[in-house]
Amino acid sequence: MDNLPIINNSQIIFLFFKIFSLVFSFVYLVFSVVSFQQTKMMSKTIRVAKSGILIILSIIQLLLSIFLFFMAIFL
Amino acid sequence: MGKNNANHQIFHSFCLNPNISFDGQDADEYPILVLRAHPVTQLPCLFNSFFLILFVLFLNFFLPKYLDFYQVIFVNFFGLSLTFSYFYFNFMNWFFNVGIITNKRVLDIDFYGLIYKETTIATLIKVEDITVKVGGFFSSFFDYGNVFIQTAGAETNIEFINIPKPQEVAKIINQLLKNG
Q1: Which residues of A touch B23 (CB under 8 A)?
Q2: Which of B50, B105, B106, B133 would you label with A75, given CA atoms 20 to 30 Å apart?
Q3: Which CATH architecture has domain B7-37+97-179?
Q4: In a mutagenesis test of the B interface, which of A21, A45, A60 is the best target, namely the one with the most B β-carbons within 10 Å?
Q5: pTM for the full predicted model
């Protein structure tokens, strides 16, 4: 028993947070990619004058999710 | 009714002669009316987004006790990004779920979630019956409701849900039927 590594509360919180942030940021990244593809498909189905704005918004969302994923890796 | 003089009313939920085109549009076909759900029906999404932002900000009172600075920044960033995505997703659902009435056909284009798309089309000749349903306090106050278009034969019926000015929509379709 004496040889077991001692894990304190802050390490447990850190480990839990790391797993949580990695899993959820990855799910968010997948969602953003699907959302981006869907936006492109919707814009092709119904062509409106300012559909470019919607595609830009979906790109912003995608960039945010990529940033979050890398933030979670290096946290 | 011509191709020009676009008239967008009620935050683009009732657009007369709009300048849009859609998949499968014929060369001699042009949209006369484009319908989306009344903006009032999207208010719950706005409120939810607002409360999500408040919730994320509220978390800042407790998180610094358990997490370090960069983790708190991550939680804030993640929460606000999720709120943005929630709002954006609902907006996209509202914007692209449209009913289109052209000089030749009636179309109902629906997107469910992120991966499912449904398009119902009926030619104006096949339209048999139009039913308008308005019920409830908000529907009567803001003048929105449902329009059900029954078609002949085995063709699928078309439903426009929570659209503004349902009576006027029925009137426009009737006018097109008479002219056609």
Answers
A1: 44-46
A2: B50
A3: Roll (2.30)
A4: A45
A5: 0.89
A31 touches B: beta carbon within 8 Å: yes
Domain ranges across chain A: 9-73
Among residues B36, B45, B29, B47, which one has the least CA distance to residue B10? B36
ipTM above 0.95, yes or no: no
The answer to whether the Cβ–Cβ distance between B88 and A75 falls below 8 Å is no
B105-112 sheet: strands from edge to edge: B7-9, B14-16, B31-35, B98-102, B105-112, B116-123
Q: How far apart are CA B40 and CA B13, in angstroms?
A: 10
CATH 2.30.29 domain extents, chain B: 7-37+97-179
